[in-house]
Amino acid sequence: MSKIHEAIQALFPGMLPIWAHLYTVLIIAVVVVLALYKITAPPKSSTRLEKMSTTEPRWVRWVLITIALLFMGLFLILPLLSVFGEALSKGWDTYVAALAEPDAISAIKLTLITALIAVPLNLVFGVAAAWCIAKYEFKGKAFLTTLIDLPFSISPVVAGLIYVLVFGANGWLGPWLTSHGVQIIFAVPGIVLATIFVTFPFIARELIPLMQAQGSDEEYAAVVLGASGWQTFWHVTLPNIKWGLVYGVILCNARAMGEFGAVSVVSGHIRGQTNTMPLHVEVLYADYQAAAAFAVASLLALLALVTLVIKSIAEWRAEQQAKAAAEIPPERPGQISLNQNKTTKAA
Fold first, then answer.
1. Which of 43, 144, 266, 294 would be a feasible disulfide site paired with 87, CB 3.0-4.6 Å?
2. Sign of the CA dihedral 188, 193, 194, 198?
3. Number of C-alpha atoms within 13 angstroms, CB side, residue 304?
4. Are the CB atoms for 214 and 180 separated by under 8 Å?
């Protein structure tokens, strides 16, 4: 056992004092995973054919599952646990003090403000773009779809440099903005703009295939019955896309809070003013304040885990509603006329 400890100490210096914290976080993670599995697990089937998910031998399935679990444990769970372990390596007081530092509080506030501005704007744009692409046919539709995917193919650092080129002091609009006392680069507006650029495809790309699959029959029926455009959207379209919309907002919010490359270019790294949480982690780590850096990083990781839990719950609710809708038997013509008569008499 001592040789194993020496080997671990050689590979991961300073890791042994934090094993207790790692085990605690691991137990909590296992409990959360089991709870999510219990909530989202499909009902057991009574037929043998439905139980057979694959035709491969059982040992093949177990080997594949073991490889997948080892891969996830090595490249996902272990780094995540090491973040929490390093954050708590010097005690709870040091952890709280790192988060209560004025620069850390400023970074947390700026991250939340940026997300609160970028996500609603992307929500409006994403719904409008998805509605336009999924419900209408027009020239340039494929080009618009390509533009929506553009931030996925451009490096975030390049996106930040684009904003510097446009709004910087020596950029295209920089002299005019300076003469009017408006500062975008190295200020909060530049951070918000860069965040909007890298996050705006998430909601639109989540809604476009969903709207295309649903078609426009229900909207046409609502218009024929006299509904206005807003009534059709609020009472027909929005209920059909609400879970896809929630899923897109969750992904957009997660990327907005964790964005580094584009924000790093346009922020200027001004402590207490333009540093978001990812940038604050970099600054602390560069100043050899490892415990404080990992403390802020652990807060980002907690936000990511909360996002993952909310996303899992949203997916489960969407699946449950889809199953419930599929199990409802269609109404017979006699029942439809009877319901209409009851409605007429009530009116």
1. 294
2. positive
3. 13
4. no
CB burial string 18-46: b at 16+ within 10 A, e below: beebbeebbeeeeeeeeeeeeeeeeeeee
Q: Tell whether pTM > 0.85.
A: no
Cβ neighbour number for residue 228 with a 10 Å cutoff: 10
Lowest mean pLDDT segment, chosen from 23-27, 160-164, 179-183, 341-345: 341-345
**pLDDT at residue 247 tops 60:** yes
Q: Residue 317, CB half-sphere, CA atoms under 13 Å: how many?
A: 13
Buried residues in 95-125 as b, exposed as e (16+ CB within 10 A): beebbebebbebbbebbeebbebbbeebbeb
Q: Which of 78, 109, 91, 76 is nearest to 292 (CA)?
A: 91
Higher-scoring residue by pLDDT: 13, 217 = 217
State both tokens at 72: 């996830």
Residue type at position 273: Q
Fill in the DSSP letter of residue 32: H
| 191-208 confidence digits (pLDDT tens) | 999 999 999 899 998 899
Indicate the SS3 state at residue 273: coil
Residue 92 neighbours by CB under 8 Å, 6+ apart: none
Give the integer Cα–Cα distance in Å for 318 and 243: 6
Distances in Å between the Cα of 243 and the Cα atoms of 190, 199, 305 are 31, 19, 19
Domains, the chain, ordered by start: 16-37+58-88 (no CATH), 98-325 (1.10.3720.10)
Neighbours of 246 (CB within 10 A): 18
* Separation between Cα atoms, residue 263 and residue 279, nearest integer Å: 8
Quote the CA–CA distance of 225 and 55 in Å, as a whole number. Answer: 51
